[in-house]
């Protein structure tokens, strides 16, 4: 009763597999992409993260509690996060348990457990853990006229944002005031967009990433 199918080799899939191994289970990790890391692989069509994107939480609070982060960047870039996840998988002997390029198509109850139907065949497991993430479907509101917009750069979701340089010299509207919108707006400004306007439906309070030289999340999560 110890064989567990873990669907997804992103941060959640890796850390739950680490826990399972530590408690005597035998996890098999299914990953549809050709490398581990989930969103942090920054692969077009599979993730909404672009290569130069940074975490919005600081290095110490972003890392797992059982593996210290490397480097001195307070807010690591996507490549550094991916390298950390690879090191995590290697440190805790998870790499050999991952089946890359294996998409799970169906999960169903079997006579003696759960049956996983995937791109290669089907297998039976005692338990199943779904760790496939929740950021794979862009949320685009029904804005009248959006489909007929003829601006030079077109209209796109932050999920498809990759190269800020292609917007150099253009006037850009970023619709939304959450983390993704603010990160994209910052990238556009630093990469030469002629003008960047951010719109939002309601007031938002934005904290600076540093307060008196200390990462803001250190203060928020440890003092307040």
Textual characterization of the structure:
- The protein is globular and about 60 Å long.
- The protein has 224 residues and is α/β, with parallel strands linked by helices.
- The protein starts with a strand and ends with a helix.
- It has two domains: 3-130, FAD/NAD(P)-binding domain (3-Layer(bba) Sandwich); 146-223, FAD/NAD(P)-binding domain.
- Strand 4 (104-110) and strand 5 form a beta hairpin.
- It is built from five helices and eleven strands, in the order E-H-E-H-H-E-E-E-E-E-E-H-E-E-E-H.
- The strands form four sheets. A four-stranded parallel β-sheet has the order 3-2-1-7, covered by helices on one side. A three-stranded antiparallel β-sheet has the order 4-5-6, with no helix packed on it. A two-stranded parallel ribbon has the order 8-9.
- The mean pLDDT is 91.
- The longest helix is centred in the middle third of the chain and has 14 residues, at 78-91.
- 22% of the residues lie in helices and 21% in strands.
Question: What would the CATH topology of the largest domain be?
Answer: FAD/NAD(P)-binding domain
SS summary, helix count:
5
Question: Which architecture of the largest domain does the CATH hierarchy give at level 2?
Answer: 3-Layer(bba) Sandwich
In whole angstroms, how far apart are the ends? 44 Å
Overall tally of domains: 2
Q: Per DSSP, what share of the residues sits in E-state strands of 2 or more residues?
A: 15-25%
Morphology call: globular
Q: Let me know the largest β-sheet.
A: 4 strands, parallel
Poorly predicted spans: none
CATH class of the largest domain: Alpha Beta
SSE series: EHEHHEEEEEEHEEEH
The portion of residues assigned to helices is: 10-25%
How many strand elements?
11
Mean pLDDT: 91
């Amino acid at each position: 009763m110890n064989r567990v199918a873990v669907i997804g080799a992103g941060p959640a899939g890796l850390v739950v597999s680490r826990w399972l191994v530590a408690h005597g289970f035998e996890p098999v990790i299914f990953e549809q992409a050709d490398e581990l890391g989930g969103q942090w692989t920054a692969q077009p069509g599979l993730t909404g993260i672009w290569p130069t994107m940074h975490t919005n939480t600081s290095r110490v609070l972003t890392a797992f509690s059982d593996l210290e982060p490397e480097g001195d960047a307070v807010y690591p870039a996507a490549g550094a996060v991916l390298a950390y996840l690879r090191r995590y998988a290697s440190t805790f002997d998870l790499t050999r348990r991952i089946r890359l390029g294996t998409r799970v198509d169906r999960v169903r109850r079997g006579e003696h457990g759960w049956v996983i139907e995937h791109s290669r065949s089907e297998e039976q497991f005692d338990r199943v853990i779904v760790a496939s993430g929740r950021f794979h479907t862009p949320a685009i509101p029904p804005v009248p006229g959006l489909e007929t917009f003829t601006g030079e750069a077109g209209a796109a979701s932050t999920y498809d944002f990759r190269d800020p340089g292609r917007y150099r010299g253009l006037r850009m509207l970023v619709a939304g005031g959450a983390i993704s919108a603010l990160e994209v707006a910052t990238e556009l400004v630093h990469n030469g967009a002629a003008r960047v306007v951010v719109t939002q439906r309601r007031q938002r309070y934005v904290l600076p990433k540093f307060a008196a030289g200390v990462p803001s999340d250190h203060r928020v999560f440890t003092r307040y």
